[in-house]
């Protein structure tokens, strides 16, 4: 039985990190005070959950081939099926197939849509300045189309509604997205979200990740331009929309309130960042610790 415990530990870790954590973390609103550390925690938890699932097969193989290794079995003596093999097959095989499928569909869809949107914006833009495009539309909207050929898109309505300083704040926010490649971070979480079975996935988790990414870009913009211009620009842009493939704010009032409240603390590192990063390190080590346990058990 002892040789199977690391396999079961890996399976439990995978379930906890891919199903349990996405339901728990959105409830911890204090993590919004330190969005960088919070996103690191989210990323590592997701990656460690996938890694734990993929490690169950090697761990089961080690358990079955270890000297004197025994594992609990199902059925009768003539049709023995080890619990370790069942867990490894379900966790590793299922996760591998669903992960590859989600990554292919989401990655291909996002890149196709963004490429088409970039080409459209380049054609219809009334003005351009480097990678910034201004579209002649009366509504207020500002978003970025990330990628190797990134674009920051503003509508004419946005340009007219904001002062020069506020416009610089909006541009700094969008450029923070493209420079730091926040799109890859969001794509990673989106792939993990769609990898989890429909009944087990949490839509709140993906919405919280989007909010944390906006908070992170807000911090970078506030440090560059200042809190007041960015805060006013956020208020003016409330309710704005953007294409689905673009990276931008949802414009929801609840999101605006959270972002405005977070602005005053942008210059200091919150004390909670240290325990969050320590927790992240522990989670990152968990799958490897279980695999090492299987090897030495």
UniProtKB/TrEMBL annotation:
BP GO terms, sorted: proteolysis
CDD domains (alphabetical): M56_BlaR1_MecR1_like
UniProt remark on cofactor binding: Binds 1 zinc ion per subunit.
Domain Peptidase M48: 131-185
Keyword presence, Iron-sulfur: no
Keywords in alphabetical order: Hydrolase, Membrane, Metal-binding, Metalloprotease, Protease, Transmembrane, Transmembrane helix, Zinc
Cofactor(s) required, per the database record: Zn(2+)
Pfam families: Peptidase_M48
Membrane-traversing stretches: 6-25, 37-61, 81-100, 276-296
Entry's Gene Ontology molecular function annotations: metal ion binding; metalloendopeptidase activity
Family indicated by similarity: Belongs to the peptidase M48 family.
Protein name in the entry: M56 family metallopeptidase
Organism for this UniProt entry: Ornithinimicrobium ciconiae
Lineage: Bacteria, Bacillati, Actinomycetota, Actinomycetes, Micrococcales
């Amino acid at each position: 039985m002892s040789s199977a415990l690391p396999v079961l530990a890996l399976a439990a870790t995978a379930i906890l990190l891919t199903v349990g954590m996405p339901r728990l973390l959105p409830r911890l609103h204090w993590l919004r005070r330190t969005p960088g550390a919070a996103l690191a925690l989210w990323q590592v938890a997701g990656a460690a959950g996938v890694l734990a699932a993929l490690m169950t097969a090697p761990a089961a193989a080690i358990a079955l081939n270890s000297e004197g290794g025994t594992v609990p079995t199902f059925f009768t003596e003539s049709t023995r099926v080890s619990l370790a093999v069942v867990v490894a097959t379900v966790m590793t095989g299922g996760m591998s197939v669903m992960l590859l499928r989600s990554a292919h569909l989401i990655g291909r869809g996002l890149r196709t849509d963004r490429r088409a949107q970039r080409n459209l914006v380049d054609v219809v833009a009334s003005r351009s300045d480097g990678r910034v495009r201004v579209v002649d539309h009366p509504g207020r909207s500002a978003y970025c189309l990330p990628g190797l050929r990134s674009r920051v898109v503003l509508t004419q309505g946005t340009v007219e509604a904001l002062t020069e300083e506020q416009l610089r704040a909006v541009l700094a926010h969008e450029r923070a997205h493209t420079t730091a490649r926040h799109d890859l971070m969001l794509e990673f979480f989106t792939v993990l979200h769609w990898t989890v079975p429909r009944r087990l996935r949490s839509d709140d988790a993906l919405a919280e990740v989007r909010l944390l990414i906006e908070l992170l870009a807000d911090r970078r913009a506030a440090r560059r331009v200042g809190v007041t211009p960015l805060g006013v620009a956020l208020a003016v842009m409330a309710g704005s929309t953007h294409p689905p493939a673009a990276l931008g704010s949802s414009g929801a009032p609840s999101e605006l309130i959270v972002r405005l409240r977070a602005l005053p603390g942008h210059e200091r590192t919150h004390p909670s960042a240290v325990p969050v990063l320590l927790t992240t390190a522990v989670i990152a080590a968990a799958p490897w610790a279980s695999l090492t346990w299987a090897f030495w058990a």
